[in-house]
Give the backbone structure.
Amino acid sequence: MASFDLITMGRSSIDLYANDIGAPFEEITSFAAYVGGSPTNIAVGARRLGLKVAVLTAVGEDKVGDFILKFLRDEGVETHYIPRRPGTRSSAVILGIEPPDRFPLVYYRDNAADIQLTIDDVLAIPIAEAGALEISGTGLSREPSRSATFYAAELARRAGKPVYLDLDFRADQWHDPRAFGVMVRALLPLVTVAIGTVEEVNAAMVQSPADIVIRHQQISAPEIRGDIEANIAAMLGVPNGPEALVVKRGAKGATVHLRDGDRVDVPGFPVEIYNVLGAGDAFAAGFIYGRSKGWDWFKSARLGNACGAIVVMRHGCANFMGYHDEVLDFVTARGGF
């Protein structure tokens, strides 16, 4: 029996969300403090659905680290394997909320503790005994986290366990946004299921340097071009690569593209948007939960869509993930699976 149903690996942070909904970023007067970071959000979401979850991240020897660890413990997420890195800082993110389509955010990840995860940290957590591993693209942006992420995926695949890759493209975390694709493509033979938005898939599989345009020499906000259908085919055509690619399409739901050429279109749930940040992580939590329970692609993605829809109606990420019965009631009230 697996010691954990799921291990997630990567970044964590304190997230400061604007309380002034609709205000321009420069006019924000106060913030609410939550916990964030894609793998951390997914861990909390999966735990609230009922999975036994551990997260492999790292925090500094600081009060922000205390804040993150306490929240995770209170949620029932295993924190035993989270190292505290002397000389580093726990991460922070500041976020504005201007519905329906402006959600500016600023990362504070200089000398981030979680990017210092090492192969030794991976060896300390029982990946081979877990039901599944979830990793993120940001973990590939720097060493030693890059090597640790590759090694974790190797261990899981060698043990016959599924590896979920959240593409998690954050351009300003890379010295060059084109390097994101280089690293993702190298990792794909170790991935069972990749999950991302249209933009993230294009960034991962960009075929020409001209497809990523750096505006005004600012690599933090590149314009990404690409033929999404060609890039989906390219990702699934990687030798020994993913068996499925899940493309998140916001209000339109999600599409599961399978290696054999089949696709499964899964409708979303129309809701009023309050804050889209964290919805993709909620989707991943629901989707992985479904797959861990033996559900088919449609039902798993449908649950993921429900988890995402619940979060877009709320203020933050990890703190607002849906609970098992709440999510199932949400689906049932809107037509079921």
Observations:
- DSSP finds ten helices and 16 strands in the chain.
- The first strand starts at residue 6 and ends at 9.
- The chain has one domain: 6-12+42-89+112-328.
- The first helix runs from residue 38 to 49.
